[in-house]
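Appendix C. Worked example: Ig-like domain-containing protein
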Amino acid sequence: MILILQLLLALSLSLRADGYNHYTVKDCITSSSDLSDLEYINTYYFNKDPYIQFNSTVGEFVGFTEFGVNNAERWNKGPEVQQERAELERYCKHNLPIYYSTILDKAVKPKIRLRSIKQASGGHPAMLVCSAYGFYPPVIDVYWLIDGEKVTSDVTATVEMADGDWYYQIHSFLEYMPTSGEKISCVVEHTSSKEPIIVEWEGSFTNSDMAKIIVGASGFVLGIILSTAGFLYYKMKSPDFL
Ligand SMILES: *[C@@H]1O[C@H](CO)[C@@H](O)[C@H](O)[C@H]1NC(C)=O
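Step 2, the predicted output written as structure tokens:
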């Protein structure tokens, strides 16, 4: 992941459509948290056109327009370039660790909700949706297991959607033909949790599951009645009854 810390300095910002807009953008760019490849870029814009830029890897100002080229020549000989060369340390290396420790290293665990949005009917498959809410950072893996096997087809998922408050949500849909006794679960892997979060689907039973449960429960009740009756009969027959 590339991180860009951006500071917008508007030197004379006009919000009017017929006004002029002069500003500089300071970027600290890195792709690793140890900041080993950190680069500092300061770009000057007039309206939306960049005209001069300092790049810490280059170590000098480079102009893009005639005005920019003239300025670059002058600034590269003066104190301006010395000041810019110190910005990588002073500005980027100072601020980025603060951002890492206060925001980027933080992880917030998703809340998982698993529900059925379509029952199987007339040869059409059923559909389950597994939703993860309120997690950070956005990198997440949501997948399905049927009897312990990862499902590779009949799954569609949204991208990670920003809630606009640093938290994200994502939804994964599974289409399946219900069969008796299968075990379906939704698995979520996220940096906030060392172990994968597994939520098992324990919703609707199929008709044949229901029949088995009724037969089993009836047998159980019958067994209790018969053994109680047998026990009472034995007690009543024994000589020390009452
Ligand atoms: C800064 O300059 C280096 C060396 O020319 C270049 O590789 C890099 O892409 C430049 N960075 C940006 C953001 O333009």
